Structures are given as structure tokens and as C-alpha cells.
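Action item from last meeting closed. Structure (477 res):
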């Protein structure tokens, strides 16, 4: 998907600039990548076998792969094909972070060999560049993904998580078009192009396009918690596409030393930054969609756009619905009243309930092990709202910290916070470098000051992400 984003963006620029050979050349990258992506993400099926008691049945049932199923009583076997809706099961996040730290140590060792090894060191560096880049650009994203999944605690289907990541990476295509093609055309040559791109064009364009990617999954957003999860994952997907490009450029400019420093900074700071900024707008969309009338409006609009799109496509001679004619959308008209009913009674959503017993055991197909929920919480609270455990010998109490960040309920403020945070991250470093030279600092002093400021930014992003996760976990949905 990363190669597809980069090549397809270059292909679009080639079309806009009238370079047919450039477009044809990029097709040798985009078409194989697209075919592989469709093949890899195709719906996977599972065979389910159900054996039930049945008078007059059989005691032995042969199975296609060889062998048989034997029962002690007469039975009948039914076989079904169902879509694989397995829940994503990432390894413990600590394990993935240890892999990333080990990868950084290897990159640092290769950088030392590159510096001290002369020609042999440079050859070894060149050989290791691509595999180490592939590791360092993806492992930290996977680590943050695992961390957020464990923090949020929402069971997520693997296919859903994959498509959220893919949508985030696809949002990089229009962002590249705006930053690399449109902005240089619109900005006068006398203006500071880099500063405008980093502080205005990139934050506004990237956050808006990521927000559009989140909107594609309104049917999966039930409230701020699920909106936050989708926004966080879309942001990680966008970070994947961007991270690969930055790591390649850092290696081209500074060898493995540049690759090591960029991987460390982006893995700890920039990647969660993209996720956190987009999660603000995703959670705000979740707040907005938690109002039934708003979600009904969106569902109604999607159905109308779908039917109109089918009319346009079939008008040019393509039978989209494969009904034997090209008359456009032939189904019943979808009304606002139907949208309201669909929101109130969603299909395929289980009705959850909690019994009044002290202990309730809930087992679902999404959770492999039962969850025990203690419901005598009011009897275990002190006057300040702290939870007191029943057995003082094990622990005295668990208190909920008041330090947390609750995402805004306004779409405007959610998107504005995302854009502002992105702009501050990009622009503050440029401003510090500019004023460093203006105040007469040497190049080495400017580099050290910039690195210190990046360290401060990383700490700020980690703090915000921690408080935001705590605030999201305090929400009911």
C-alpha cells in the first residue's frame, strides 16, 4: 500500500503535467501493487461444521480433508461457509516495543560500522538499508496500534482494523498532491514555500483528508470511543505512508546515522502525533454521530450518493448491479424515515444487558475468555469516589486520577485541535531553527537546540496521548 500511494500520487502529477511516459512508467508499480492489495484483502471464508443429534442419522461423518467425525449417538452434520470475522489479536505491546528497541540498536551498530568501516562499511550499509527501513518504518506503528488496542479495550475485527489502516494510507494520496503539486503553484515565489507547506498546507490538507477517511466508516462509529479508535488507526495508517518516505530521505541524506535518528524521533513522537491529532476529530465525529438524528442524516446521504453514483456509472454503459440493463438504480427509494428506523434498530448489532446479580459472566464470539463484571460498586466507594477493594489484605484502594483529556463534542473544535497540533509540531521546529541562525548560533548549536525541542515535543505528545487515552476509557461507549 505504501508503494501504491507513492506511485499513484506521482502518476496523478504526471497526468496533470502532461507527462505520458511518466504515467506509463508508474503504472508498472501501481497495477501490481493494486492487484496484490485486492488479493490480500479479499474476504476470507471459514467452514463451520455443526453436528446435532438426529434420529435415523449416522454415527460417522467423513470430512473432505480426510478422516471422519464419530459420535456416540445418531447424528447429522451440517456444513456452512461464513465470512472470517476474527478479532485482531496483537502480541503484547511490550514485546513489539522491545523488537523496535532491538531494531534501533542494530541500526545504531550499522551506523558505527558505516562510519568506521570505510568502503566495506558503506557497502554493508547499502545492503542493509532496505530491510532495515522496512522494519523501522512499520514496527513502531504496529507497537502503537497494539498499545492503543489494549488501552481502549474495544474488540475489533481484523478486517475492520486493516481497512482503517488502508484508508489512512490512501489519505496520503490527496495530501501528497496538495503538498507537492498544488501548494507550489499557488504560493508566490517570493514567499517562504517550506514554512507555508509545513505549517499551513500540510496540517490543513492532511487532517481534512484523514477526517474524510474517518467519515467512510460512519456505520462503525457508535460514539466517541469507537470514533477515537477509528481516528487513531486512520492516523497510524497515514503515518505509515509518510514514515517510509521520511526514512528513505533520511538515509539518502545522512546514511544510517540519519536513518537511526529519524526512526527514533518519528517512531516515538511523529507516529503517535498523527494518531492523536486525528483521534480528536474522530472522537468529535463520534460525539456528533451519537445523536440518532445526525447518524440518520449521514446514512440517508450515503444511500442517496450511492444510488446517484450508480445512475451515473450505468449511464456510460457499465452494468454495475448486473441486472441485465443499464437503467441505473432500480431498488426502492431510501427515505429519511427508513434511515431513522435503521439507526434505532441496527441489523446485526447484539442487544447487551447486565443482570442484577453481584457477578455476571459475559461470553461472546468476540471475546475468547469470559469477563467477570462486579456490580456492587456503590457499596465499595468512599466519600471521594475512590474504589475500595473487598479484601484489604490484597490492596487498599484504587483511585481514578482526575488528570485526563476528554475530546471535544464539536466537529469544528475537534478538527481545529487536530490541525493546530499538527501545525505546531511542524512549524515550531522551523521557527527555532530560523531564530537560532538569526541570533548568531552556530550550525552545531542550532542542531542541538532543535533536537532538544524535538525531545520536548515528543514528551508533550506522549503526555497528551496518555491523558487522552485515560479520558476515552472513562467514557461509557
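Sequence:
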Amino acid at each position: 500500500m505504501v508503494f501504491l500511494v507513492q506511485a499513484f500520487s506521482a502518476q496523478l502529477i504526471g497526468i496533470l503535467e502532461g507527462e505520458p511516459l511518466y504515467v506509463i512508467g508508474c503504472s508498472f508499480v501501481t497495477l501490481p501493487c493494486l492487484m496484490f492489495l485486492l488479493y490480500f484483502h479479499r474476504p476470507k471464508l471459514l467452514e463451520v461444521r455443526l453436528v446435532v443429534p438426529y434420529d435415523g442419522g449416522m454415527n460417522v461423518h467423513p470430512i473432505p480433508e480426510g478422516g471422519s467425525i464419530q459420535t456416540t449417538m445418531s447424528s447429522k452434520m451440517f456444513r456452512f461457509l461464513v465470512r472470517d470475522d476474527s478479532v485482531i489479536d496483537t502480541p503484547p505491546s511490550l514485546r513489539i516495543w522491545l523488537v523496535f528497541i532491538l531494531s534501533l540498536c542494530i541500526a545504531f551498530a550499522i551506523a558505527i560500522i558505516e562510519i568506521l568501516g570505510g568502503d566495506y562499511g558503506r557497502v554493508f550499509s547499502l545492503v542493509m538499508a532496505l530491510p532495515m527501513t522496512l522494519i523501522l518504518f512499520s514496527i513502531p506503528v504496529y507497537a502503537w496500534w497494539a498499545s492503543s488496542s489494549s488501552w481502549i479495550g474495544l474488540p475489533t475485527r481484523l478486517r475492520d482494523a486493516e481497512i482503517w489502516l488502508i484508508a489512512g494510507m490512501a489519505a496520503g494520496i490527496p495530501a501528497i498532491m496538495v503538498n507537492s503539486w498544488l501548494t507550489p503553484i499557488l504560493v508566490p515565489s517570493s514567499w517562504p514555500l517550506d514554512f507555508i507547506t509545513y505549517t499551513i498546507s500540510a496540517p490543513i490538507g492532511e487532517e481534512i483528508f484523514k477526517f474524510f477517511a474517518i467519515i467512510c466508516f460512519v456505520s462503525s462509529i457508535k460514539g466517541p470511543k469507537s470514533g477515537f479508535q477509528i481516528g487513531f488507526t486512520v492516523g497510524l495508517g497515514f503515518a505509515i505512508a509518510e514514515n517510509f518516505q521520511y526514512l528513505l530521505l533520511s538515509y539518502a541524506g545522512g546514511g544510517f546515522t540519519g536513518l537511526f535518528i529519524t526512526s527514533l524521533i518519528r517512531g516515538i513522537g511523529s507516529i503517535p502525533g498523527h494518531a492523536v491529532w486525528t483521534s480528536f476529530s474522530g472522537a468529535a465525529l463520534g460525539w456528533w454521530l451519537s445523536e440518532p438524528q445526525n447518524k440518520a442524516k449521514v446514512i440517508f446521504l450515503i444511500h442517496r450518493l450511492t444510488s446517484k453514483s450508480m445512475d451515473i456509472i450505468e449511464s456510460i454503459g457499465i452494468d454495475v448491479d448486473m441486472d441485465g440493463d443499464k437503467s441505473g438504480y432500480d431498488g426502492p427509494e431510501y427515505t429519511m424515515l427508513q434511515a431513522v428506523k435503521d439507526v434505532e434498530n441496527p441489523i446485526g448489532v447484539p442487544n447487551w444487558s447486565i443482570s442484577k446479580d453481584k457477578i455476571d459472566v459475559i461470553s461472546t464470539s468476540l471475546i475468547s475468555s469470559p469477563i467477570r463484571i462486579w456490580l456492587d460498586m456503590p457499596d465499595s466507594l468512599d466519600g471521594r469516589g475512590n474504589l475500595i477493594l473487598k479484601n484489604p489484605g490484597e490492596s487498599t484502594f484504587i483511585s481514578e486520577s482526575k488528570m485526563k483529556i476528554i475530546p471535544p463534542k464539536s466537529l469544528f473544535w475537534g478538527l481545529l485541535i487536530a490541525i493546530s497540533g499538527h501545525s505546531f509540531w511542524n512549524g515550531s521546529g522551523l521557527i527555532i531553527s530560523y531564530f537560532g541562525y538569526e541570533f548568531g548560533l552556530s550550525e552545531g548549536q542550532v542542531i542541538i537546540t532543535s533536537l532538544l525541542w524535538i525531545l520536548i515535543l515528543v514528551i508533550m505528545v506522549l503526555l497528551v496521548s496518555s491523558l487522552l487515552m485515560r479520558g476515552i476509557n472513562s467514557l461509557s461507549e
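Note appended to the action item: Confidence is low (pLDDT under 50) at residues 348-400.
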